[in-house]
User: What shape does this take?
Amino acid sequence: MSVDELIEGSKSLGLDGICLTDHDTFWTDEEIRDLSSKHDFLVMPGCEINTEAGHVLVFGLSAYEFGMHRPEYLQASVEQVEGVMIAAHPYRRRFLEEPAERPEAREEMLERASGDGFFRMCQGIEALNGRGLAVQNKFSLELGGRLRTNMTAGSDAHKVEQIGTVATEFHRPVACLDDLIRELRKGRYQPVDLRQNSAPEA
Assistant: This one.
């Protein structure tokens, strides 16, 4: 889908704003301002960085640098600008559906994931991914509970029909990127499944 379709689809579903988080590429401030103005809608820039430890949603950076594939380098870059890192779809690489049917195997996966230092580098994890299966998101929710970390939700929409499945609900108004970063760092939000119109239970 085009970015215009994404924004108009989000508006039509009653969302208050969206984050554009393409892989390893950044939207410019001018592009974001133009999109927000054109659609009269809150659009905020971010990026999904591919790292050796998994995908990370970052807010506050403005350009990709070689080395950001290493989690420690990325963390240092984000901290330098007082930005935010959110571990995207943490079930990937850490959860296998078929073995997880055995309680002891699932417990082992959770235990291993909760001991992964990568998650400690992030200000939160994405507990609900709109394209994730229910069992995968349940794993992420339980992982977030064990880590005692903040949890977001994102549609991860690649097609129009995937928009607005899940969202992050903020406790205070978010009107710009600075607001978003502040609230993410403070942990004043929760994941919401818009298909069920409720906050999920871990």
Summary: The first strand starts at residue 17 and ends at 20. The first helix runs from residue 3 to 12. The CA atoms of residues 22 and 47 lie 5 Å apart. The chain has a mean pLDDT of 95.
